[in-house]
Request: fold
Amino acid sequence: MVFFNAKSISSLVVGGVLMIQAALTGVEGQAWRAHHGLTGAAFQTQFNNYVSQGYRLTHLDGYGLNNVAYFAAIYEQTSGPAWVAKFGLTSAGYQEQFDTLVKDGYRLKKVNGYSVNGSERFAAIWDKSSGAAWVARHNLDSAQYQAAFNTYVSQGYRLKHVSGYAVGTTAKYAAVFDKSAGPKFAARHGLTSAQYQAEVTKLKGEGYRPVSIDAYTVNGQNLFAAVWEQTTGPDWAARHNLTSAQFQAEFDRLVKLGFKLISVSGYGSGSALYAGLWTK
Ligand SMILES: *[C@@H]1O[C@H](CO)[C@@H](O)[C@H](O)[C@H]1NC(C)=O
Ligand SMILES: *[C@@H]1O[C@H](CO)[C@@H](O)[C@H](O)[C@H]1NC(C)=O
Reply:
């Protein structure tokens, strides 16, 4: 297990050779950074470097390819409450960290499930912000997730983030809900690439903008889970089915136009594909 946090950074052991690493950076002067295609070791090194420069990790996505875990991350150079991030956690390790951190007054901001060698791993970000009541669930299959979603939404919770991953040949979900105020939201999971594209287009017509994307591969099939909010705002862009090079090119093009990456997810079998969301 590898882990790190903003206060005490652990040493890290990762087997294997350092693989392709593509770096994405915002234009000079912009206080945010994004990277994809990082091995655990490369991610840890980069994380240490950014944390020392006052960046906070705002988004972390793990994905397994050929039995190796890779990460995509977004950092912002902002102040804020104490925060902790961990990755490479087993189910039991995640639960243990969760219990400890919640006892210490942290709330879960993001949880990302991913699978490596057919078993699930978790990456998560917590912070000590105060705020509305929240709940988090993980290791739910599609039906269990839908049932939890219905229950929490009927109790006034909103879905903040959902992540899909494969455990063997079954899709599992991890999600964070809270009772914060906000615009109407929409959520979908288990969408194929074509269904996701159709939903983005349909919901756009109804005034929804995507705010969170997670793509995952189960049994060789690429699936999408996303959250939208019905709100006006600056221009946004959603892209998926991009290779690493295509993602990099799209990133560069959009950043030059003033867009900022807000959500990114790696997926696929064998070679990586990426889905991302940008906003101005
Ligand atoms: C996956 O399995 C291979 C072969 O057993 C092993 O070398 C590798 O370390 C494993 N990867 C992870 C991330 O556990
Ligand atoms: C993904 O993109 C490739 C070309 O890069 C295309 O051949 C393929 O049909 C696309 N798949 C989906 C599901 O859109």
User: Anything to note?
Assistant: Helices lie at 40-52, 91-103, 142-154, 193-205, 244-256. The chain has one domain: 2-279. The pocket of 2-acetamido-2-deoxy-beta-D-glucopyranose (ligand 2) is lined by residues 193, 241 (CB under 6 Å).
